[in-house]
Write a structure and sequence with these properties.
By secondary structure, the protein is α/β, with parallel strands linked by helices. The chain has two domains: about 160 residues, Aspartate Aminotransferase, domain 1 (Alpha-Beta Complex); about 260 residues, Aspartate Aminotransferase, domain 2. The protein contains 14 helices and eleven strands. The strands form two sheets. The protein has a seven-stranded mixed beta sheet with strand order 1-7-6-5-4-2-3, with helices on both faces. Strand 2, helix 6 and strand 3 form a beta-alpha-beta unit. Helix 3 packs antiparallel against helix 12. It is globular. The termini are far apart. Bound molecules: pyridoxal-5'-phosphate. Pyridoxal-5'-phosphate (PLP) binds next to helix 5.
């Protein structure tokens, strides 16, 4: 690592990235390349001799960027956002620069201690119960993704119950969630050895706005108990991936508690909004939870990856995930004076991820972050109104945050073509390269998702996207009438 070369390349790369952001709207939002495009553009093997930095930058411009989908484009409205910001970026840069591997406190005390402090800060911003903060038996940890977060708490919960009922009972352990829950939970169950038939996916429908019904949960648990099964884990959602549905946390949490189950809350996307007092009620009932997760990398200006997980009983995680090999032993860990985050996650190694979240919190402050969320929600209301004003479209589920679920209605007597029509509309819109939106299916209806949350998005981008949608709808409806 030559410091002067770092300075030279680093300045050039920052210039390159700044120029990228200045011209980001010139690129098609959704990459338009064909599968395998890059094989034809790059040599078969790595060079024997070093290439020049400028040559590499040129290749990035001409060969790599065409194959990039521009998540930071103001015209990106697909899936959920993945935020980038100056603060998040420079934090990420510092993390790469220091390049520590902070698995135990001793490997970089600042990495562990800053992570504990920053997650306490964020926990307080979200008004999480004190039990989730590091002063007591709980605390926060940064995982890479919500998938890792739900996996580690599932493992903690599994081992905790098995310590009570005996290891042989694994085949009886039951996990519950609504059918709107992210597939990350299914994957976690597969990894944790939960028997597939014991992963109970409970149907949620339009009558509860796709929230999980406490009555259905209670009934299912009672039946399972009667069959000698052991209910042990419930995952609830605040902001589902399809439609931002919110499960009734308080009622569900009480059922989980009365049955001795672990209660996890997945607020990967919508958790960010809860730093605003007017949206905090969406996580009312979180006091019943054993663990709570939100992705700061989705909608909180923190560059990927930064998934914040809080847990009330950190010893449950540590008991499930700790190992203590000779080569990692050290005085601070042996004396139990410190947190060693290696015992709160799957891998050993870990990056200094708290730096970027710390930078975001310090350089923007709570008030700006609240304004940021509110602005996207205002834009989402605006888009919702645009859709509602055009009788050819309908808003399908109530908008709670900054996602609008809507669809194009078919011409009279053509209802059965509705799904096909919306699929075609999605493809037509995305192939323009002017916007990128995604879809879902709810109650057998093919639905378009318009998720506002890219940091550069302004009202003019929302209006332009709506124009593209309207134009393509006009063309499609014209064709279908012919
Ligand atoms: N949970 C919800 C509600 C999500 O929306 C997502 C992804 O969008 C996930 C979990 C999985 O996220 P990750 O990629 O962080 O594992």
């Amino acid at each position: 690592m030559d410091a002067e070369q770092l300075r030279e390349y680093g300045h050039k790369m920052v210039d390159f990235i700044a120029d990228y952001y200045k011209t980001i709207e010139n690129y098609p939002v959704l990459s338009q390349v064909e599968p395998g495009y890059l094989r034809n553009l790059l040599p078969d093997s790595a060079p024997n001799q070093p290439d020049s930095f400028q040559h590499v930058l040129d290749d990035i411009q001409t060969k790599i960027l065409p194959g990039v989908t521009h998540w930071q484009s103001p015209n990106y409205f697909a899936y959920y956002p993945s935020n980038s910001s100056v603060a998040g970026f420079v934090g990420e840069m510092l993390s790469a620069g220091l390049n520590i591997v902070g698995f135990s406190w001793i490997t970089s005390p600042a990495a562990t201690e800053l992570e504990m402090i920053v997650l306490d800060w964020l926990g307080k911003m979200l008004k999480l119960p004190e039990d989730f903060l590091s002063a007591g038996q709980g605390g926060g940890v940064i995982q890479g993704t919500a998938s890792e977060a739900v996996l580690v708490v599932l493992l903690a919960a599994r081992d905790k119950i098995l310590r009570g009922v005996g290891k042989g009972a694994l085949e009886k352990l039951v996990v519950y969630a609504s059918d709107q829950t992210h597939s990350a939970l299914q994957k976690a169950c597969q990894i944790a050895g939960i028997y597939p038939e014991n992963f109970k996916v409970l149907k949620a429908n339009a009558s509860t706005n796709y929230g999980l019904s406490p009555e259905l949960l209670s009934e299912t648990i009672s039946k399972d108990l009667a069959h000698g099964l052991i209910p042990f884990f419930l995952c609830a959602n605040v902001g589902t991936t399809s439609s931002t549905a919110v499960d009734p946390l308080l009622a569900l949490g009480k059922i989980a508690k009365s049955n001795g189950m672990w209660f996890h809350v997945d607020a990967a996307y919508a958790g960010s909004a809860c730093v605003c007092p007017e949206f905090r009620h969406y996580i009312d009932g979180v006091e019943e939870a054993d663990s709570f997760n939100m992705n700061a990398h989705k909608w909180f200006l923190t560059n990927f990856d930064c998934s914040a997980l809080w847990i009330k009983d950190r010893s449950a995680l540590v008991q499930a995930l700790s190992t203590n090999p000779e080569f990692l032993k050290n005085k601070a860990s042996q004396a139990n004076l410190v947190v060693d985050y290696k015992d709160w996650q799957i891998p050993l190694g870990r990056r200094f991820r708290s730096l970027k979240l710390w930078m975001v919190l310090r350089l923007y402050g709570l008030e700006n972050l609240q304004c940021y969320i509110r602005n996207h929600i205002k834009l989402a209301k605006h888009f919702e109104n645009l859709v509602a004003e055009d009788p050819r479209f309908e808003v399908v589920t109530p908008r709670l945050f900054s996602l609008i679920c809507f669809r194009l209605l078919p011409p009279p007597n053509n209802e059965r073509y509705c799904n096909e029509l919306n699929h075609e509309l999605l493809d037509a819109v995305n192939s323009t390269g002017k916007v990128f939106i995604s879809h879902t299916v709810l109650s057998d209806k093919y639905i378009l998702r318009f998720a506002i949350g890219a940091p550069l998005t302004e009202e003019k981008h929302v209006n332009a996207a709506w124009e593209v949608l309207q134009d393509k709808a006009t063309a499609l409806l014209g064709e279908s009438l012919r």
